[in-house]
Design brief:
Strand order of the largest sheet: 6-11-7-8-9-10
Number of strands: 11
Distance between the termini: 36 Å
Order of helices and strands: HEEHEHEEHHEEEEEEH
Shape: elongated
Length: about 240
């Protein structure tokens, strides 16, 4: 199995190992030519061209010798430039990451790049995959359809109190007092949230405003919250400044 081959390869070195996945079925092992291979990796142009000649490069693989199963800031910056999945091995596990855009500075497009997309991608980078859901019909938030609340309950989230909120929990709030709960925000700790509010505003991290308390409908925690590694979010945020 290809995933097991990657994990086995990672265990052969105390440095970061790397390779390219060809056609989704073959691992081409590459030489890590980075001057600091214990902390970083780099695939040579020669290896990259050899892989392109062999087929389609469908993913980039590398390992973290330390126990860190999320992409670093440098990883995220490089991943976006490649535009393909990145596979990461660490501590005998393998995780696959989609090439999602950076979490900060996104332009809002309802149903494609909105608050749920940001929430889903942030969880993906932190180790938990949340399925997307159909929200193509505009205006559901004033018709009593409660799509967000139904989706949270169906996908492994349980409600907790605002008083017991912890980093990684998801705040669902109303856009205005009469609307259904229709906006998702991820609590990052230190009174800050990550969210993407409305068209015309970029996705951002900011302080949780006092005026939002009355608009807050509920707070949700995933059943696998213990495996949620928000370092994946923080490293992506750091990648924007590299």
């Amino acid at each position: 199995m290809l995933e097991n081959e990657c994990i086995t390869y990672a265990a052969t070195s105390r440095n970061e190992v790397c390779g390219l996945i060809i056609d989704g079925i073959h691992l081409m092992r590459c030489v890590n030519v980075h001057p600091e291979p214990e902390r970083h990796f780099r695939i040579s142009d020669t290896d990259w061209m050899k892989a392109e000649a062999a087929g389609e490069i469908t993913a980039v693989f590398h390992s973290h010798p330390e126990a860190k199963l999320v992409l670093s800031a440098a990883d995220r910056q490089a991943q976006i430039s490649t535009g393909v999945e990145w596979w990461l091995a660490s501590s005998g596990q393998l995780r696959k990451f989609r090439p999602v855009p950076h979490l900060l500075g996104r332009r809002f497009k309802y149903g494609d790049m909105d608050c749920f997309t940001l929430f889903r991608d942030a969880y993906h980078l932190s180790g938990i995959d949340i399925p997307d859901f159909d929200r193509s019909t505009n205006g559901w938030w004033v018709r009593g359809e409660n799509l967000f609340i139904k989706n949270m309950a169906l996908n492994g989230f349980r409600e907790v109190t605002l008083a017991n909120i912890q980093p990684g929990d998801v705040i669902i709030r109303r856009a205005f007092p009469e609307s259904d709960p229709c906006h998702a925000m991820i609590w990052l700790g230190d009174n800050s949230v990550l969210h993407h509010e409305i068209e015309g505003r970029l996705s951002r991290r900011e302080q949780f405003r006092h005026t939002w308390i009355k608009l807050t409908h509920s707070v949700w925690r995933h059943e696998q919250c213990s495996s949620l590694d928000l370092q994946g979010v923080f490293d992506d945020i750091s990648a924007k400044s590299l």
